[in-house]
Write a structure and sequence with these properties.
The complex is a heterodimer.
Chain A lengths: L4 E3 L2 E4 L5 E6 L6 E7 L6 E7 L2 E5 L7 E4 L6 E5 L8 E8 L9 E2 L3 E5 L1
Parallel strand pairs in A: 2-11
Antiparallel strand pairs in A: 1-3, 3-8, 4-5, 4-9, 5-6, 7-8, 9-10, 9-11
Chain B lengths: L3 E2 L4 E5 L4 E7 L4 E9 L6 E7 L4 E4 L2 E6 L4 E6 L8 E9 L7 E2 L3 E6 L1
Parallel strand pairs in B: 2-11
Antiparallel strand pairs in B: 1-3, 3-8, 4-5, 4-9, 6-7, 7-8, 9-10, 9-11
Classes of the chains: A mainly beta, B mainly beta.
Amino acid sequence: DTGVSQDPRHKITKRGQNVTFRCDPISEHNRLYWYRQTLGQGPEFLTYFQNEAQLEKSRLLSDRFSAERPKGSFSTLEIQRTEQGDSAMYLCASSPSGSSYNEQFFGPGTRLTVL
Amino acid sequence: DQQVKQNSPSLSVQEGRISILNCDYTNSMFDYFLWYKKYPAEGPTFLISISSIKDKNEDGRFTVFLNKSAKHLSLHIVPSQPGDSAVYFCAASEFGATNKLIFGTGTLLAVQP
């Protein structure tokens, strides 16, 4: 399977704990995106990487959130001191570079539940 | 401030008939529009897209129409099949460095056998 993969698929944690999610993009896709989706809403942009450089962060990404993409391959999204409002589906997407290419390919998501 | 709007939360269609899903946007700087399909517990799957320089794009049973003056696009599915039952998201991107997507809230399509 050469699609975008995410791990874990589900995470249940207690309020105040830290969690980390991983995303493996499609090989050779140098653009990587994180989105968050809550019930009844569409995915909302969180952050964008071009290779290893984090080039844009949404104001939704509070100081408790940090994302990395070392070596421009896989990416991690960490949430510190989780709150109940962080409960959502966290989606990762990747795409090749090139101004004419806009389609993004999504992984299955990580569903986070904060108790 | 919802820049991409899907005003119909749900749509029910008979198998074999046409499904028409609608989307409106407010940002005139959007230059690319996409439709994604999502099943429960899965990530969105890309369906079809259209550049702002076109008014129609067709791929098999799926056709997307863009009316720039009205800031409106629609997805037509003909003929509709029970396997098309899913949530459909309209998304838009603005030309720039990131091509981040702005999504609507989705329309749940139910195709009745």
